[in-house]
UniProtKB/TrEMBL annotation:
Top-level taxon of the source organism: Bacteria
Keywords, comma-separated and alphabetical: Lectin
The organism of origin for this protein: Nocardia panacis
Alphabetized GO MF terms: carbohydrate binding
rRNA-binding keyword on record: no
Name by which UniProt lists this protein: Uncharacterized protein
Entry's family note: Belongs to the tectonin family.
Gene3D superfamilies cross-referenced by the UniProt entry: Tachylectin 2
Alphabetized PANTHER family for the sequence: DYSFERLIN-RELATED (PTHR23250), FISH-EGG LECTIN-LIKE ISOFORM X1-RELATED (PTHR23250:SF3)
């Protein structure tokens, strides 16, 4: 595929904060960090996670198979690279140190308060996946594959606006770098145009089960076979 370059390894979930901050987990819940060197691309990190969120500023959060929540502190305390944060989530994403969102097993939505003793505030709505960008942009999809963008910082009476489309997975790097995967595995990129009667998504070649979008425009995906791809469709062929 001309739009994607394959990177060695096998992952089931992936998240990208920037070109140099890419993390993933494999089917056995092992955690990997991108080395920025395709010839030897992944460094194993201790612990086991089922989902992971990596931000442009280096912030990384994850959840495990028991829905426990962890924040990475391996760059601060090497003896124990993860600190457990109170709460229960099945999906998590981090746009920055202060912009972390997740959803629990019932579809409830939570935003990090930036205060570990009382870490989460519940936000109205129900989602099955969520993506948040470095600039505070937040999108989500629900169990019916409906797509929403957060506007709760603009309209408190209705914090989510529906956007046409049908997606199962969503990833946000920033306001203008939003990607998704539909129930059939097709990959879509947001056109930045919600206007009525206009399709806000452009289909990108490839099939995926999870997608990652970074603040600097980078994107990655993994497919049902665990194969890993980095987007190069915005570069000269």
């Amino acid at each position: 595929m001309a739009d994607w370059v394959k990177v060695a390894g096998s992952l089931s979930a992936i998240s990208a904060g920037s070109r140099t901050t890419v993390w993933g987990v494999n089917a056995a819940s092992a955690i990997y960090r991108y080395t920025n060197y395709d010839a030897n691309p992944w460094l194993g990190i201790p612990e086991a996670l089922s989902d992971i969120g990596a931000a442009a500023d280096g912030t990384v959060w994850g959840v495990n198979g028991g829905n426990q929540i962890f924040r990475y502190v391996g760059d601060q305390a090497a003896s124990n690279p993860w600190v457990n944060i109170t709460g229960s989530l099945v999906r998590i994403d981090a746009g920055s140190r202060t912009n972390v969102w997740g959803v629990d097993s019932a579809g409830a939505i939570f935003r990090y308060t930036n205060y570990d003793p009382n870490p989460w505030i519940k936000v109205p709505g129900s989602l099955s996946d969520i993506g948040t960008g470095a600039d505070g942009t937040v999108w989500g999809v629900n169990a019916g594959n409906q797509v929403y963008r957060y506007i709760g910082d603009q309209d408190s009476s209705n914090p989510w606006v529906g956007v046409p489309g049908s997606l199962k997975r969503i990833a946000v790097g920033n306001r203008t770098n939003v990607w998704g995967v539909d129930p059939a595995g097709s990959i879509y990129r947001y056109t930045n145009n919600d206007a009525s009667g206009v399709n806000p998504w452009v289909k990108i070649p490839g099939t995926a089960t999870d997608i990652a979008a970074a603040a600097d425009g980078n994107a990655w995906h993994v497919n049902s076979g665990g194969e890993i791809y980095r987007y190069v469709g915005d570069q000269p062929s």
